[in-house]
Design brief:
The protein is of the alpha/beta class. Helices cover 44% and strands 12% of the residues. The structure holds zinc ion (ZN).
Length: 199
Amino acid sequence: MYDYPIAIRKLIRELSKLPSLGERSATRLAYHLVYRDKGLGLSLADHLTEAMAKTRLCKSCNALTESELCSICQDSSRNRKLLCIVEKPIDIFSIERLGIFKGLYHVLHGLWSPMKGVDPSDLKFTELNKRILELQPEEIIIATGSTLEGDATALFIASEIGHLSTKITRLAQGMPKGGELEYADEITLQRALEGRSVL
Ligand SMILES: [Zn+2]
């Protein structure tokens, strides 16, 4: 019985691990890259290697960057008294796209989830506390999604830093329930940000 050569089988196996890509789509993709468009396959391999090698986390906010500090942390025109806490690096892009937030960010790289075995110690909380001490922000916006974990994390942060005189706000309801930031449309996200309420 004919099967794909070993190298292609390995490629299909790895591609099918990507989110929302089943084995059929992975096979089609591998076939396209290795046979139909070898130039694209080679360039993709190069870009992937380059992106993996160059991308790291910003020393200050944990966003993705190629230098020690990301461009937002380096930008002196940003309001350093306004700190927005998000779950993952991609959430920064969702908020930046709106063009209305001019403060700084802090990426947690996850959410508190006892069900999934994620403790606050697995997230960037130590770094967050350090950052808050350093910046002494006037407002901390907790911009985690309206999921069970997003809400739990927001409450946890609020209880941890509640003793500070900093104003702590949370995105307004109206975000689709069970919705993560990256799936919210721009108008919904803008309304949630502008209508944020004190926790
Ligand atoms: Zn940064």
